[in-house]
Amino acid sequence: MLNSLYVRDYMTKSLVSFSPDQDVIEAAKILADRRIGGAPVVNDIGNLIGVLSDTDCIQATIKQGFDPGWRGLVSEFMSANVETVEVNDSILSVAERFLKDRYRRYPVMEDSRMVGQVSRIDVLRALEHLDR
User: Fold this and answer.
1) I need a surface site. Which of 23, 31, 36, 65 has the fewest CB within 10 A?
2) pLDDT digits (tens, 9 = 90+) for 14-49
3) Is 29 helix (H, G, I), strand (E, B) or coil?
4) Cα 28 from Cα 32, distance rounded (Å)
């Protein structure tokens, strides 16, 4: 039954995303205002090139606190080595990855293009459907 639940049915399709040349403090404010823990970083043609997390933004904000005139870019703080999942992966396989890894979300790929994101909460929602 778990193998019949797929990422495509539970992922978030509408995402906040950042560009690598965006001001990292501005990005931090967007994450804080929207109460989200991270967002993908995409290039000019929409390819996934990284992820900016709340932890990355905390580092940038602390740096700015020591030097109020300092400005940095998203590309300087994002994680470039991004773990992804496929749109047709089972929720069970993603749940197992969440148990092994420290990640809280994975970008979802289809034909080498990012089409959404799946989070730990999305997996919990999927597993909740098993009780119904």
Assistant:
1) 65
2) 889 999 999 999 999 999 999 998 999 999 988 999
3) helix
4) 6
27 vs 74: CA distance, rounded Å: 7
Domains within the chain, CATH numbers bracketed: 2-131 (3.10.580.10)
Residue 52 contacts residue 58 (beta carbons within 8 Å): no
Using CA atoms of 77, 81, 87, 92 in order, give the dihedral in degrees to the nearest 10. -100
Q: Please state the pTM of the whole predicted model.
A: 0.84
The Cα–Cα gap between 17 and 23 comes to: 13
For residue 26, the surrounding DSSP H or E stretch is helix 24-34
Q: Residue 112 — φ and ψ, nearest 5°?
A: 65, 15
- What is the distance between the alpha carbons of residues 95 and 19, in angstroms, rounded to a whole number? 29
Is pLDDT of 96 > 60? yes
3-state secondary structure of 109: strand
Amino acid at 25: I
* Single-letter residue type at 7: V
Cα–Cα distance measured from residue 2 to residue 29, given in angstroms and rounded to the nearest whole number? 38
